[in-house]
Amino acid sequence: MILRPAQAADAEAVAALWNPVIDGTAVTFTTTRKTPEGLAADFAARGPAFLLAEEEGRLLGFATFFAFRSGPGYARTLEHTILLAPEAQGRGVGRALMTALCAEARAQGAHSMMAGVSGENPAGLAFHAACGFREVARLPEVGFKFGRWMDLVLMQKFL
After folding, report:
1. Alpha-carbon span 159 to 150, nearest angstrom
2. What b-and-e string marks burial along 101-110, b requiring 16 or more CB atoms within 10 Å of the CB?
3. Nearest Cα to 96, choosing from 127, 134, 139, 117?
4. Cα–Cα distance for residue pair 1/99, rounded to 1 Å
5. How far apart are CA 68 and CA 11, in angstroms?
């Protein structure tokens, strides 16, 4: 397995991994599908802050970070997204991506990393806890998808 920054040529594969999660799960509250064009722009803007894991040319997953909130007072707090292909889960791919992502965030001067995890995603909560994140807030019924309200769990890790 190798970890590397995403490139424009990866956009189709990332969209193919991400869109079924958007369409069919409560892991994310968004209903807006990712486009290759939008993803390529994100890759260019984020550079080494958008990492891919691949094996023999197959995408295993990705992790990226971005500003937690706008404004200079929040500049050293980041939020991230991480997503793995089903066949990559339980193989250490997520931990490797998270370790590399946090290292990149530290190198860019970040103080803490936030995770916004759906309350309906116990595997995501357990993964983040195992990676050193701790729950700092539970926001009841702030997400709405599939005709129901869902909780958002905020988790934080100091870098």
Report:
1. 29
2. bbebbeeeeb
3. 127
4. 14
5. 23
Instruction: List pLDDT tens digits, range 44-96.
Output: 999 999 999 999 999 999 999 999 999 999 999 999 999 999 999 999 999 99
Domains along the chain?
2-158 (3.40.630.30)
**Per-residue pLDDT tens digits for 4-39:** 999 999 999 999 999 999 999 999 999 999 999 999
- pLDDT computed for residue 61 by the predictor: 98
CB 115 within 8 A of CB 143: no
- Residue 31 and residue 145 in contact, taking contact as beta carbons nearer than 8 Å: yes
Please say whether the beta carbons of 53 and 1 come within 8 A: yes
pLDDT of residue 117: 97
Cα-based distances in Å from 79 to 8, 12, 24, 71, 85: 22, 23, 23, 14, 21
State how far the alpha carbon of 40 is from the alpha carbons of 13, 102, 144, in Å. 11, 22, 28
Looking from the CA of 94 toward its CB, the CA atoms found within 13 Å total 21
Give the residue carrying structure tokens 């995603």: 121
Q: Which two tokens stand for residue 80?
A: 């991230």
Q: How far apart are the C-alpha atoms of 130 and 22, rounded to whole Å?
A: 24
On whether the pTM is more than 0.90, the answer is yes
